[in-house]
Amino acid sequence: MLYPEVPNTFWSFKHALKFVRKRAALPPLGLLTVAAMLPEAWEKRLIDLNVGEVGEADLGWADLVFVSGMIAQRESARVLIERCRAAGKTVVAGGPLFTSEHGEFGEVDHFVLNEAELTLPGFLRDFEAGQAKRVYTTTELPELGDTPVPLWGLADLRRYGSMSLQYSRGCPFDCEFCDVTAKFGHRSRTKSASQVIAELDALAAAGWRGSVFFVDDNFIGNKRKLREELLPALIEWQRVHHRRFTFYTEASINLADDEALTRQMVTAGFDAVFIGIETPEEAGLAECNKRQNRGRDMLEDIKRLQRAGLEVQGGIHRRV
C-alpha cells in the first residue's frame, strides 16, 4: 500500500509540522481502510512517502501494489507508479485522484474506483480467478454499515500530528466548486455509533493519545443521528476513557444556528471546527450556489461558535 507525497501546499502543513516534530498531518485513512477489506491471508505493508521512503527491497517484496491519493498528489503518484512499473509490479489504483482522472494514467494495470465497499470485492474475486478487468466502477452509493476498522497496525502513528476517522459521506448542499456531492451524493450516509466507538477503541489500543480529525466533508449533514446517536456515545466513551482524545472536524456555517448541538459537540471533546466561508460577498455566494452562507452575519456566526467553546478555522476571501 503506497501513498504518494503531498506537495507543499496549505494542506500539507509541511512547515508547521516541524514545530511539533511530526512528518505528516494525517495518515492515509483510505488505504488503511482498504487494507482491512483485503483477504486476511495476504501479507500487507504500508509505506506513506510523507513519512518514509520506498526502497528497491520494498518493491521487490511486493507481489501487488495499491496506490491511492488526492488530486493534489497527481505528480507524486505519477512518479511512484512509474517506479512500480519499472520494477515489474502490478499496480492497482483507486481513490479520489484516480476516480476523477483514471484516463490520464495509462501505466496502471487495474483501477478500483468510487467507493471500495462496492468495487473492491469484484476486483478481488476476478483477481483470484486470474481474470481481473482494468476498470471497476459503479454509480451506486453504499451504506457504511460494513465498512471495517482501519488497520492501524500498518502505520507508524508516532510520525503523525493527528489521527483521522470518517463518520459520514455525502453533503446536503451543492456548492458549485466542490466535487463531494458528485462523488458521494447529497444524502449523508453514516456509520453507526458502535462502528465509530470500535475505531476509537482501535486507536486507543494502538497507543494513540491526542487529536482525532473527523474527516467528513460536512459533519452535521445528518443532525438527528449526530445528536441522538453519535454524540451521546462519544460523550460516554470520553467519560470512561478520561477524555483521552480531542476531536476536530469540518462543518457548514449553519452549525452556528444550533447552540445545543454545538455545546453537545464540545462536551464530546470537539475543540475546533473548520468552516468553509470562501467569501462574505452575496454575489459571490450566489454565483457558486453556496446558499447556506447567504444572508448571514458570518462574523457573528463565528463568534457564536467560539463562545460555545470551538476554535474556528478557515478564512474569508473577498471576491475580486
Describe, in plain words, how this protein is organized in 3D.
34% of the residues lie in helices and 14% in strands. The mean pLDDT is 94. It is globular and about 60 Å long. The protein has a five-stranded parallel beta sheet with strand order 7-10-11-12-13. A four-stranded parallel beta sheet has the order 3-4-5-6, sandwiched between helices. The protein has helices spanning 29-37, 56-61, 74-86, 96-101, 116-128, 180-184, 193-205, 223-240, 259-268, 282-287, 298-308, and strands at 2-3, 47-48, 64-68, 90-94, 110-112, 135-136, 163-165, 168-169, 189-190, 211-214, 246-251, 270-275, 311-313. The chain is of the alpha/beta class. The longest helix is centred in the C-terminal third of the chain and has 18 residues, at 223-240. The protein folds into two domains: 2-136, Cobalamin-binding domain (Rossmann fold); 162-313, Alpha-Beta Barrel (TIM Barrel).
* CATH structural fold name of the largest domain: TIM Barrel
Succession of helices and strands:
EHEHEHEHEHEEEHEHEHEHEHHE
Task: State the helicity in percent bands.
Answer: 25-40%
> Class of the largest domain in CATH?
Alpha Beta
Number of domain modules: 2
Strands, count: 13
- CATH homologous superfamily grouping of the largest domain: Aldolase class I
**Mean residue pLDDT:** 94
Q: Which runs of at least 5 residues are low in confidence (pLDDT < 50)?
A: none
Radius of gyration: 20 Å
Given the helix and strand composition, which structural class is it? Answer: alpha/beta
Beta strand % = 5-15%
**What CATH architecture label of the largest domain applies?**
Alpha-Beta Barrel
- Silhouette: globular
| Cα-to-Cα separation, first versus last residue | 43 Å
Please summarize the sheet with the most strands: 5 strands, parallel
